[in-house]
Write a structure and sequence with these properties.
five-stranded mixed beta barrel, OB fold (Dihydrolipoamide Acetyltransferase, E2P), mainly beta, about 40% strand, globular
């Protein structure tokens, strides 16, 4: 799984049948420190994520498996919203600037 941030919506008036009723989101890939990595990508929304949400997503074959019809052209699927992320002795909350030390 990979980290990302929802930066927009994609409007499509015509979709393949397996995407009907699903929203498409514009995702900015991020590294584990919430730094931008690469160009934005389009993914299918499976969890009702919104603009500004930090999310994790899956790519390739694994992404297509979250849609009811598993024979579909999905390459990127949003799998969950990140509430908190823990790394070693730091707690990184859903915004990159909010870092707190965790007491042992």
């Amino acid at each position: 799984m990979k980290f990302g941030k929802i930066i927009g919506n994609v409007v499509s008036t015509v979709k393949v049948e397996s995407f009907e009723g699903s929203r498409l989101l514009l995702i900015q890939p991020l590294d584990e420190n919430y730094e931008t990595v690469g160009l934005p990508i389009v993914g299918i929304d499976t969890i009702k994520a919104g603009v500004g949400d930090f999310i994790y997503y899956e790519i390739s074959r694994e992404a297509s498996r979250v849609i009811e019809n598993t024979m579909n052209p999905c390459d990127v699927a949003v799998m969950g919203i990140i509430d908190k992320k823990y790394v070693a002795e730091k707690q990184v909350i859903s915004k990159p600037h909010a870092v707190q030390k965790v007491k042992k």
